Amino acid sequence: MKAMILAAGRGERMRPLTDHTPKPLLPVNGKPLLVHHLEALARAGITDVVINTAWLGAQIPAALGDGERWGLNLQYSDEGAAALETGGGIHKALPLLGDAPFLLVNGDVFCAYPWQALTGLRAGDLAHLLLVPNPGHNPTGDFVLAQGRAHSGEGHRLTYSGCALLSPALFADCSPGRFPLAPLLRRAMEADRVSAERWEGLWCDVGTPERLQTLEAQLHGDLG
């Protein structure tokens, strides 16, 4: 299985930290956030990883190289000066990802989930989502989890973690350009083609300097 890390965003809420550094290269517990992802993927036996880039994008391959130091094969999908959003970025990278389901990880989250546990999609499904308890910055959540299926109807919502297993077929009707991922997921949910699970372990959307500090404290054991 291949993996894709989304790393093209501007990181507006992280400014001024991201004025000169892409958000996924910001240090967390002594190493760039992207390196934490690469180490976790390598531990899970995933060796082929695609990273999309845009804002200050040249810094990312300069910092990570070809991935050999982690036993990985890294490829880069350069989106130029303006990021293509989540959906458009994935769509552009599909030629590098192949025809099989692939793991998707947002480059600006920290997640301790064991990626080797994601073994595949159920026949006919287009996605499997990792959902987490709602953090303070997203109190109403995103999607409902019921009997292992995700939907966007009524019920207690959980937050999409930014991590998923996706089928390239999810993008079958898409055209190149800038577009988000969420509408594609909702359309697939309406057809009951999205599974999901709840993750209670360590997860953080590293979206602001304050959350970055909270994550640092957690990793140092300063918080329960």
Tags for this model:
Spore Coat Polysaccharide Biosynthesis Protein SpsA, Chain A, alpha/beta, globular, 22% helix, 224 residues, single chain, nine-stranded mixed sheet
Reported by name, the CATH topology is Spore Coat Polysaccharide Biosynthesis Protein SpsA, Chain A
Instruction: Just name the CATH architecture.
Output: Alpha-Beta Complex
The biggest sheet, with number of strands, parallel, antiparallel or mixed sense and barrel status, is: 9 strands, mixed
Q: Give the helix tally.
A: 5
Shape: globular
Q: Whole-number average pLDDT?
A: 92
The helix content is 10-25%
CATH class: Alpha Beta
What is the CA-CA span between the terminal residues? Answer: 34 Å
| SS-based class | alpha/beta
Q: What low-confidence regions span 5 or more consecutive residues with pLDDT below 50? A: none
How big a fraction of the residues is strand?
A: 25-35%
Radius of gyration, whole Å: 17 Å
Write the element-wise H/E pattern from the N-terminal end onward.
Answer: EEEHEHEHEEEEEEHEEH
Number of strands: 13
3D architecture notes:
- The protein has about 220 residues and is an alpha/beta fold.
- It has one domain (about 5-220): Spore Coat Polysaccharide Biosynthesis Protein SpsA, Chain A, CATH 3.90.550.10.
- The protein has 5 helices and 13 strands.
- It has helices at about 35-45, 60-65, 85-95, 180-190, 210-220, and strands at about 5, 25-30, 30, 50-55, 75-80, 100-105, 110, 125-130, 145, 150, 155-165, 195-200, 205.
- The strands form 3 sheets. Strands 1, 4, 5, 6, 8, 9, 10, 11 and 12 form a 9-stranded mixed beta sheet that branches.
- The longest helix is centred in the middle third of the chain and has 13 residues, at about 85-95.
- The mean pLDDT is about 90.
